[in-house]
Amino acid sequence: MNETKSNLASGHEFPRALLQTATEQLAFSPAIVLLGPRQVGKTTLAKMIAAGYPDAVSLDLQLAGDRQKLVDGSGFLQANRDKLIVLDEVQYVPEVFAQLRPEIDALRRPGRFLLLGSASGKLLQQSSESLAGRVSYLELTPLQVREVMAPDANAQMTLLTLQKLWLRGGFPVSYTAPTDALSFTWRSDFISTFLNRDVRELGVNVPAQTLHRFWRMTAHLHGQLFNASSIAASLGGISHTTVARYLDALVDTMMLRRLEPHFVNVGKRLVKSPKVYVRDCGLLHALLNLPDVNSLIGHPMAGHSWEGLMVEQICGLVPKGADVGFYRTAAGAELDVVVELGSKKYGFEIKFSSAPTVTKGFWQACQDVGVQHAYVVAPVRQGWPMKSTASHTVDVISPLQLPWALAR
User: Fold this and answer.
1) What is the DSSP string of 196-255?
2) Are residues 322 and 212 in the same domain?
3) What is the spatial distance between Cα 105 and Cα 118, in angstroms, rounded to a whole number?
4) Nearest alpha-carbon partner for 234 in 223, 246, 252
5) Which helix or strand (DSSP H or E) is residue 248 part of?
6) Which of 48, 176, 378, 379 has the fewest Cβ atoms within 10 angstroms?
7) In the beta sheet, which residues pair with residue 181?
8) Which residues form the domain of 396?
9) In whole angstroms, what is the distance from residue 113 CA to residue 134 CA?
10) Assigned domain for 326 exists
11) Nearest-angstrom CA–CA distance, 382 and 3
12) Are 124 and 95 contacting, i.e. CB atoms less than 8 angstroms apart?
C-alpha cells in the first residue's frame, strides 16, 4: 500500500459527525452520556462540546484526586450548578449516577452534565436505573468514511483514503500513524492493554489469555453465524453459557457487534443465530496478523472484513429507533443488512468487487423482506442503477453514497 500523508494530524481535527447531534442534545437535555471504546476520541469530542460552555468544569475519574471530589458529591455538584460538568471515565465511579438524580431534579436545566464512559453493561444499567428520563445516550464510533474523506478529493485519493481506513481501522491514533507498521504496532499494543488492564477495570473477570483466544476465534468467524457450542468445544470444552458471557463482555465494551436476524412472517425456515463482527476492522486485522494491504487483500477473510467495515458505516448512519439486522433463510435467501425505519425497509448486500453481481437468493430476500430500496455496496468509484420494479429499486453504490441511500 502506498503511504499517503494525512492532513489530519490528530483526532481533534476530524469533523466528527456526532458533534452537532451531541451539542443539540445537550442544549435540550440536562445530561448526556457519551459512550465509546477507549482511545476513540471521546475526550477530544467533549472538549469541542465544552468549548461552547464558559467555565465548564472537567473531572477525570481515573485520577484519585478527581474521584475524591465526588466522595461527598452533593457539595461539589451544588457549587458548580451554573456550569457544565464533564465527568470523564465515569465507569470508575458508577455510583455517581445516584448522586446526579437529585441534583438534576433540583435544577432541571439543559446542559448540566456531560458524562463519558467506555461502554459496559454495568454502566448502562446503573445510569438507566438512576437517570431514566433525565439523560440522553450517544455512541461515538471509530472514524467513519464520511469523517476522513476530504470534500475536494479526486477519485484516486478517495479510494486510497478508503483503503487506508479499511486497513488501519477508525481509532484516530491508528489511522493517523506515519506508517502502516506503526499503526499495526499501536493496535497490537491496544489489544494487549485492553485485555490485561481495561477489561478488569470494567468489571469483566475473565483471564486475559482466555479472552484473547476467544476474541481471535471470533475474528476468524467475523461476519459469520455465531455458534456458541462450537466455540466452547474449541476452548477446551467449557459451557456454551460461558462462551455467551465472553461474547456479552466484548459486546458491552464495544469491541464486538452482535447483529441479530431480521424476522418476517413468510412461512420459511429462518436462520436464528446472530452474526458477530469485530467492530473496528483495524483491530480485526491485528487479531488476524494482517499488517499491510497486500496480506489483507490476499487473505480469505478479505471479503468478510470489507463487509464488517460497511456494516459499521451503516450502523453509524441510522438514526435512533431504527432496527438493524440481517436476513437469511435455510434455502439461501440472504441480505447482509436490513434496516427498518418506521414504515421503510432498506436492504444492503455488501460485495468486495469493482464489478459486483448478486445471486438469486438476493432477489428472493428482497421480495421476502419487502424492501423499498436495496443496495449493493462495493468499492466502486461511482454507483449505477441495477434494477427498478414496481415494488423496489436496486442500485450499486459506493460507501460514500450510504448517507444518500438511507435518506431516500
Assistant:
1) IIIHHHTT--S-HHHHHHHHHHHHHTTTEE--HHHHHHHTTS--HHHHHHHHHHHHHTTS
2) yes
3) 26
4) 246
5) helix 240-252
6) 48
7) none
8) 145-406
9) 10
10) yes
11) 24
12) no
